[in-house]
Amino acid sequence: MRIGVLAERAGVSVRSLRYYEEQGLLASSRSASGQRHYTDDGVARVRFIQRLYAAGLSSRTIAELLPCVDAPSERNSDAALDRMALERDRLSEYIDELLRTRDTLDRTMASARAHRESLRTAAATGGQGGERRRS
């Protein structure tokens, strides 16, 4: 099938397919006129690649995992499991950092709310910080 058909069936852009091919994630044959042609299993492969991207994996990592799919063996499976464990550790560290960032934001918001409340209290009593201005 041609690139436009694959893109439509897989639900991705033609540009994405070209990128996948540049990264070695997807292969095509070329016609005499240079048009890309893909096999019917291209749809499943593109969807698989999309799931890996959605899981937060980079194209480099995906390329390292594909031998397990393309040539299943104990060696390739072990390599894929090791790589996925590294990615999981990386994601866990990122999640921890996000949680710390969220906690910092929560503290900042609490401080801002307390400050806002002190301004309201001051306005209600006739001045900022309990002091009244005289004109």
Keyword list:
mainly alpha, 5 helices, two-stranded antiparallel sheet, elongated, 135 residues, 69% helix
What would you note in describing this structure?
This protein has 135 residues and is mostly helical. The chain is 69% helix and 3% strand. It has five helices and two strands; from the N terminus they run ααββααα. It has a two-stranded antiparallel sheet. β1 and β2 form a beta hairpin. α1 crosses α3 and α4 runs antiparallel to α5. The longest helix is centred in the last third of the chain and has 51 residues, at 74-124. The mean pLDDT is 91.
Number of helical elements: 5
Round the mean pLDDT to the nearest integer and report it: 91
- Beta fraction: under 5%
- Spans where pLDDT lies below 50 across 5 or more residues: none
SSE layout and pairing:
Blueprint: H1 3-10, H2 14-22, E1 29-30, E2 36-37, H3 42-54, H4 59-70, H5 74-124
Antiparallel strand pairs: 1-2
Helix pairs in contact: 1-3, 4-5
How would you sum up this structure in a few lines?
By secondary structure, the protein is mostly helical.
